[in-house]
């Protein structure tokens, strides 16, 4: 038969069974949607080339601070990095990049813009396309950092939003913080900035000269990197060694660096391929996501096969008629395949729509966890993959159908005899399908309930501080205030001013906000100069604990004198005290906040959650010192408000040049911190429910079919006096055996997987026995209901209907 | 005229004029075996049908009529014996060849009509031709050819006005006519008819039998299985099965008064 007629006949047949079609298509569509999204993600992370010319020649150059033989990559000594760039340019093409943020003062709303301070080579190394204009002007390729002009390149999005897409923007002036820049270029819309430099795309690109960083700065930062390009004829090892030499020489001669105890360590140049740097460990994550979606598809497919076999059983007569008219076995297989393909292709189409939505969701929730998500989107490869999957699934379904239907036995369905029907499909196959479906669902339920539990535990953990009505404001004091003394004076004036406002309850001064995604780190030592580890740190004033209602467990906070005179005192968090001293009551002890500098511990606070990514690093506090950054925490009185504009106005009352670098309502920051976990918890719950519904729909379908197949037999039993209860017990007993087998299998698989996972995943929680039992009981309960309904529906009818096969 | 023979009786009649042979069963037996027992559905059945014959096979329930018809229609295989149809020995053929012969040489009419509800009357009948594989050297059937053949078959059963209807929109008698048209459309060598009036009232049953009779008069070879002696008499030759064996005289049927 021609394909056209086969398709038309299949459509005519499927129109008669709309519930079956909708159930099958819907079931497959959702799981295929997850699979296609996961495939697209993996394809992007694992295989897709970076969108830069000769990307395999690009590397990220960092410093490896080797202490006691251990590598430490992540923090760069600012001066050393700049030196390495300056001298390293002789041997390798290199650009230095520092990420930050600034206030676009020239815009009326003074928005905070993400900024990259970089050397001119950045544009040529990445071959960045421009919508308008071009890169920074420079005097030749060897132009130095301090020769850069006050020029700016802006992103396409910023050009559209803040410059109204003005074609004449080139040559216009813009002010970021205190500097005026001339706009020389607008980056093309399709340029994708490497995630390595900032998690979010930069809006403004400024010359490195204006970053405020120079070779004399010894402190470390993680926002400073270099991008280098190796040509094919360059010796990788030799150049790496030369770069390492530059670092070592810097470390040996710089006094400040020595004071920070870099003399006892080895500084090495560390090069990572840009592609590897961007990918990080995301490959593992994406592969796990892909595996999970495959498991989901397996469950769905087991369900679909059950449904399909039930559907085939109703088509036996049709197939028999076709066979009697001369259709050969392969013609019948073709019939089944065409019908299956129509179903799977329909599922694939819906799945692609779902996948597109899931990719948007992924960009939303995993923007900072996975790289290159701005490149995510359905492409030709994913569409081809979806078609292939549709064909494979159709073939599998047709194979199952063919396997289930005996060509030679089809003639049984041509007779008019109503005396019972023999099941064409082996009961063993059906029981195996139920058992496998239940075991996979049980496994998924157990895993998702663990994920749900872990995330709920995180979400419901007490923060440890009060964030209601507290806002943290990072103030840009501008060039008017140079040095710590001036900033300290300014901080006191601000505190005094805001404390007098009627709507303010409390004010405190710190270096950084209490909730910060990437907190500042500090090394702590013992009396033998042994480094005890890296700790999150902040500088705080005497009002900090009161403002945030942070509990003191022992000792006290800093007093005014200690802050003013910057005495060598320190406050630890409970976790820090336990880590260093193995006890909490350590007020009066000494630790070393830098080599040779003993600090008296005056107090120990309760722990609080300031960030979830660096939670393993405990907290220490030093007396307030507006170093390079001044932050003020304002607690507003209950039922009162103070907007950002009002705060800005008050700041300008103190000094008209002050600006808000960052405005952070702590309540919102806390919500954002847990957002991902909350969303994951919801997704896990949704996934569990979906898997449960899938499994129960499948089990219901197959039990319903099996009961139909036994209709005549059950009718005879009832006719000779069996009561309804006995019939129901008979069917349930038979049906629940594979369900219980599946539950046992899922428990076994869960134990095995947990044993493997506990060695691989760092923060994997302990499974809760009660939770496991509840999950399995839930599945058993739903399965029982799925078994109970079809048989009770059948026994309610008169036995004669079963005997006559009506 | 039909020739028949079984192991216990000699040939009683020989045809006066030898006609073209259509179908011949020789020593056909069918045994159903389970773990514990054997059931002999057919025992040493011989049957020869010539072109143009109208043969009825009747017998009590369980005598093996349906088994015999299934073997004749290549829906089942005999346990032993040989079977020739239009000169071909089909006893040992594979599944594909049997399907092909079924499509080209046999038209089946069932008691329960066995029409496909989701297809129109036209498509139900056309299905036979759509499954037809063209021999090498022959022209493939075009859509026009199929349309002509279907309408011709519908005309033969006087149902041309129902081509676009669905089977469930027709009465039992009309459905059986459609089933007859489907059996005729491929111009088979023989029509095998299994209890054609079993699901019909007497009026419709009479009408269907009249139609079969007229088709036979026009040259169609028919072998019909029926338990209704009234309709069995429509055939030129009546044969009887009892306990899997063909008997020649009606008075030898168990329970019938001689």
* Strand order in the sheet with the most strands of chain B: 7-8-9-4-10-11
**Arithmetic mean of pLDDT of chain A:** 84
Oligomer type: heterodimer
Taking all residues together, what is the mean pLDDT of chain B?
83
Helical content class of chain A: 40-55%
Secondary structural class of chain B: alpha/beta
Q: What is the distance, rounded to the nearest whole angstrom, between the alpha carbons of the first and last residues of chain B?
A: 25 Å
Helix content of chain B: 25-40%
Give the beta-strand count of chain B.
Answer: 11
Low-confidence stretches of chain B: 1-16, 249-258
Provide the β-strand percentage band of chain B. Answer: 25-35%
Largest interface: chains, residues each: A-B, 29 and 32 residues
Main pleated-sheet profile of chain B: 6 strands, mixed
State the shape of chain A.
elongated
Contiguous low-pLDDT stretches of chain A (5 residues minimum) are 416-424
Helical/strand content category of chain A: alpha+beta
Strand content of chain A: 15-25%
For the terminal residues of chain A, how far apart are their CA atoms? 33 Å
Count of separate DSSP helical elements of chain B: 7
């Amino acid at each position: 038969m021609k394909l056209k007629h086969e398709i038309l006949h299949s459509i005519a047949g499927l129109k008669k069974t709309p519930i079956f079609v909708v159930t099958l298509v819907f079931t497959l569509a959702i799981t295929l949607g997850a699979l296609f999204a996961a495939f697209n993600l993996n394809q992007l992370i694992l295989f897709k080339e970076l969108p830069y010319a000769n990307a395999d020649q690009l590397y990220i150059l960092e410093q490896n601070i080797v202490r006691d033989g251990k590598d430490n990559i992540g923090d760069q000594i600012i001066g050393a990095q700049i030196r390495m760039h300056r001298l390293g340019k002789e041997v390798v093409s290199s650009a230095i990049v520092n990420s930050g943020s600034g206030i676009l003062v020239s815009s009326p709303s003074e928005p905070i813009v993400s900024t990259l301070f970089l050397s001119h080579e950045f544009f040529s190394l990445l071959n960045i396309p421009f919508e308008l204009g071009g890169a920074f002007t420079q005097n030749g390729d060897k132009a130095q950092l301090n020769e850069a002009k006050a020029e700016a390149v802006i992103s396409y999005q910023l050009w559209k939003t803040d410059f109204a897409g003005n074609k004449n923007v080139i040559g216009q002036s813009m002010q970021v913080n205190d500097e005026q820049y001339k706009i020389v270029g607008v980056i093309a819309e399709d340029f994708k900035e490497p995630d390595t430099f900032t998690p979010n795309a930069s809006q403004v690109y400024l010359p490195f000269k204006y970053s405020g960083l120079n070779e004399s700065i010894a402190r470390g930062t993680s926002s400073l990197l270099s991008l280098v390009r190796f040509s094919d004829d360059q010796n990788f090892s030799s150049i790496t060694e030369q770069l390492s030499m530059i670092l070592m020489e810097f470390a040996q001669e710089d006094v400040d660096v020595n004071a920070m105890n870099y003399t006892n360590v080895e500084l090495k140049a560390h090069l990572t391929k840009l592609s590897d740097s961007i990918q990080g460990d995301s490959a593992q994550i994406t592969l796990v996501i892909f595996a999970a979606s495959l498991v989901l598809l397996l469950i769905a497919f087991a369900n679909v096969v059950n449904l399909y076999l039930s559907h085939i059983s109703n088509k036996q007569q049709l197939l028999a008629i076709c066979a009697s008219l001369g259709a050969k076995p392969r013609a019948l297989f073709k019939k089944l395949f065409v019908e299956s393909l129509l179903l799977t292709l329909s599922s694939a189409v819906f799945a692609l729509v779902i996948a597109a939505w899931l990719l948007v969701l992924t960009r939303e929730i995993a923007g900072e966890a996975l790289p290159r998500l701005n490149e995510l989107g359905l492409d030709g490869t994913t569409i081809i993959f979806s078609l292939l999957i549709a064909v494979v699934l159709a073939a599998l379904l047709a194979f199952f159908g063919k396997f289930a239907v005996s060509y030679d036995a089809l003639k049984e369905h041509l007779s008019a005899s109503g005396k019972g029907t023999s099941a064409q499909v082996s009961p063993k196959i059906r029981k195996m399908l139920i058992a496998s479906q239940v075991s996979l669902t049980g496994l998924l339920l157990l895993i998702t309930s663990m994920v749900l539990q872990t995330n709920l535990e995180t979400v419901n953990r007490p923060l440890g501080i009060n964030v209601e009505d507290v806002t943290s404001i990072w103030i840009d004091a501008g060039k008017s205030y140079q040095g710590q003394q001036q900033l300290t004076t300014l901080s006191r004036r601000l505190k005094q001013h805001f404390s007098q406002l009627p709507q303010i309850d409390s004010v405190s001064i710190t270096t950084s906000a209490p909730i910060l995604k990437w907190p500042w780190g500090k090394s702590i030592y013992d009396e033998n100069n042994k480094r005890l580890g890296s700790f999150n740190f902040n500088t705080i004033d005497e009002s900090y604990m009161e403002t945030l209602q942070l509990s003191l467990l022992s000792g006290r906070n800093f007093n005014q004198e200690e802050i003013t005179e910057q005495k060598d005192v320190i406050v630890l968090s409970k976790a820090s005290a336990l880590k260093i001293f193995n006890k909490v009551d350590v007020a009066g002890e000494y630790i070393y906040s830098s080599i040779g500098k003993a600090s008296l511990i005056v107090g120990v606070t309760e722990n609080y959650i300031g960030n979830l990514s660096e939670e393993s690093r405990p907290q220490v506090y030093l007396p307030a010192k507006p170093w390079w950054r001044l932050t003020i925490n304002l607690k507003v009185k209950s039922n009162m408000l103070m907007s950002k504009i009002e705060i800005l106005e008050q700041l300008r009352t103190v000094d008209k040049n002050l600006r808000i670098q960052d405005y952070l309502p702590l309540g919102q920051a806390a919500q954002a911190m847990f957002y991902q976990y909350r969303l994951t918890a919801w997704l896990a719950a949704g996934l569990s429910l979906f898997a449960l519904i899938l499994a129960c729909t499948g089990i219901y379908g197959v039990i319903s079919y099996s009961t139909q197949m036994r209709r005549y037999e059950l009718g005879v039993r009832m006719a000779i006096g069996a009561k309804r209860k006995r019939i129901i017990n008979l069917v349930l007993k038979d049906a629940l055996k594979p369900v219980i087998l599946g539950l046992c299998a899922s428990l076994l698989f869960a134990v095995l997987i947990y044993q493997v996972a506990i060695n691989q995943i760092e923060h994997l929680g302990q499974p809760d026995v009660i939770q496991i039992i509840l999950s399995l009981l839930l599945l058993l309960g739903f399965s029982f209901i799925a078994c109970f309904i079809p048989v009770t529906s059948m026994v309610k009818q008169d036995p004669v209907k079963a005997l006559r096969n009506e | 005229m039909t020739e028949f023979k079984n192991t216990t009786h000699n040939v009683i009649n020989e045809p006066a004029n030898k006609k073209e042979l259509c179908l011949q069963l020789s020593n056909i037996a069918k045994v159903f075996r389970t773990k514990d027992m054997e059931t002999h559905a057919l025992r040493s059945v011989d049957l020869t049908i010539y072109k143009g014959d109208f043969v009825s096979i009747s017998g009590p329930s369980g005598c093996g009529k349906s088994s015999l018809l299934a073997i004749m229609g290549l829906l089942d295989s005999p346990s032993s014996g040989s079977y020739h149809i239009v000169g071909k020995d089909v006893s040992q053929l594979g599944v594909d060849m049997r399907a092909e012969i079924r499509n080209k040489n046999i038209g089946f009419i069932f008691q329960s009509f066995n029409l496909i509800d989701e297809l129109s009357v036209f498509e139900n009948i056309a299905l036979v031709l759509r499954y037809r594989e063209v021999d090498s050297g022959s022209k493939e059937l075009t859509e026009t050819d199929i349309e002509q053949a279907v309408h011709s078959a519908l005309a033969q059963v006087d149902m041309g006005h129902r081509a676009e209807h669905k089977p469930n929109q027709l009465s039992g008698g009309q459905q059986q006519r459609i089933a007859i048209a489907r059996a005729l459309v491929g111009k088979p060598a023989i029509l095998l008819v299994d209890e054609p009036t079993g699901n019909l009232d007497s009026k419709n049953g009479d009408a269907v039998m009249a139609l079969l009779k007229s088709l036979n008069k026009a040259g169609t070879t028919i072998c019909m299985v029926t338990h209704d002696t009234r309709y069995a008499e429509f055939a030129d030759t009546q044969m009887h099965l009892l306990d899997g064996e063909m008997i020649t005289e009606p008075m030898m049927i168990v329970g019938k008064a001689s």
